Amino acid sequence: MPAATPAAPSILIVDDEAGLRTQIKWALAPWPTLMAEDRLSALDLFERERPPIVILDLGLPPDRGDAGEGLATLRQILARQPLTRVIIASGNQDRANARRAIGLGACDYCSKPVDADTLRVIVERAWNVYRLEAELNAAGPEPEAPDGLVAAAPAMRRAVDLARRVAPAPVSVLLTGESGTGKDVLAKAIHRWSPRAAGPFVAINCAAIPETLLESELFGHEKGAFTGASGRQIGKVEQADGGTLFLDEIGDMPAPLQAKLLRFLQERQIERIGGRRPVAVDVRVIAATNRDLATLMGEGGFRQDLFYRLSEIEIALPPLRDRPEDIPALALHLLRKHRAIAAGAPRAFAETALARMQAYPWPGNVRELENRVRRGLTMGRGAIGPADLGLAPAEEEEGDRPAEVATVDGAPAEPLPTLRAAQEKVERELISRTLALTGGNIQQAARRLGISRPTLYAKMRALGIPRDEQATAGSPAPSEKEEQA
Ligand SMILES: Nc1ncnc2c1ncn2[C@@H]1O[C@H](COP(=O)(O)OP(=O)(O)OP(=O)(O)O)[C@@H](O)[C@H]1O
């Protein structure tokens, strides 16, 4: 046990029996201690002193035989400061409640009467883990770049610098990179950094809209232009007038529309379907793709002249696995972004979780990281552990808590996953297996799954499933029947 120094943390002892409080205080000497006898005085002291370690008896008044008051104290302390290491001190007969407390985020357990040596070891370990986690969560690379765009890794910084430099110029930009690498966020940032920032930013995902609807979505139509055109519709290109048009998944644009888009880029005017006169439109175009356009052009799937029009400047976003320096910074940024997801959601990562995130290959890139952080916020109690992120090895998954936390009798605490987390897991597995079966063919996979192609795309994006290289972009649009499925 280190000698107490001015930096030594206070330890809050919450027990309604004065004798036991004193016993613990002497066991921990010379560390400074604070004493509370019930929930309210404990929370009051916690608020004022913010002790990093709390030793908590679960049987607090008014009903000492019931753990309700102790568990409520635990919850309220962790809601105020999730990094707090709460050690449960409880009678032998109360193991079940101690287990519940661990499930709620307590870090350890010691039985009463307290053995001084054991308690000192537990407290020392709690203090070490606390310091490590506090350091990891407070320091590190500047977690949030201005504009909500994290770029700590050199490769990512280069991409963002280039984007900043080209933003003011009236040139078209092509953003390339795997699905979920941040093309969409970067496109928005370029718009904000450009002289068009006060104008609209209008995005259209060329892969998510059935081919039959894409033309009118892009260029609009006049009333009566085709069956069902009950009124005039202004297309995305026109909506972006004075601002930026973001053409996402441009590699999936069908050939006839590629020709029409090229014409627009040359003439800077469009014609609505069924329209009689051209309309001049002033937009800056940013396009993005996760497909290899060079290969596509070689196969005749993408027009070379259009490619040159769209890619006056090309910015390649590296996959997350190639920029490990971004992982902790992004994880913290995303934690802050989604913290409101659940009341009392964790506000920090366990050290083991950060290590596991660094080692994981991130096939779904930042989108997958974001989904996992959201899952961690829903599942986690106290600091988010690897299992909360779905990144624990199979044998640890069961416990659903970081190893250093689930320690009661060696028995894992098992908070159940939320229904949504369970659904997402099943959907992710099923979609991945179906895509593997169909060799990445989106249309076939959608048919097998009984959903439309756009729905499948939307689900893949939401679940962070990367789009397989072999996916057939030129696959014909789904029939109306499929769309309704
Ligand atoms: N550098 C970053 N900083 C902060 N958030 C990021 C960053 N990169 C990605 N994200 C977040 O990750 C998610 C996925 O990013 P985004 O939609 O931009 O990826 P994408 O490359 O456009 O994907 P797709 O090719 O599937 O359209 C978004 O919620 C985005 O806010």
From TrEMBL:
PROSITE patterns: RESPONSE_REGULATORY (PS50110), SIGMA54_INTERACT_1 (PS00675), SIGMA54_INTERACT_2 (PS00676), SIGMA54_INTERACT_3 (PS00688), SIGMA54_INTERACT_4 (PS50045). The modification 4-aspartylphosphate is found at D57. Gene3D superfamilies: 1.10.8.60, 3.40.50.2300, Homeodomain-like, P-loop containing nucleotide triphosphate hydrolases. InterPro entries: AAA+_ATPase (IPR003593), AAA_lid_NorR (IPR058031), CheY-like_superfamily (IPR011006), Homeodomain-like_sf (IPR009057), HTH_Fis (IPR002197), P-loop_NTPase (IPR027417), PEP-CTERM_resp_reg (IPR014264), Sig_transdc_resp-reg_receiver (IPR001789). Residues 10-127 form the Response regulatory domain. Residues 149-378 form the Sigma-54 factor interaction domain. Residues 463-485 are annotated as: Disordered. Keywords: Activator, ATP-binding, DNA-binding, Nucleotide-binding, Phosphoprotein, Transcription, Transcription regulation, Two-component regulatory system. Pfam families: AAA_lid_14 (PF25601), HTH_8 (PF02954), Response_reg (PF00072), Sigma54_activat (PF00158). NCBIfam families: PEP_resp_reg. This is PEP-CTERM-box response regulator transcription factor.
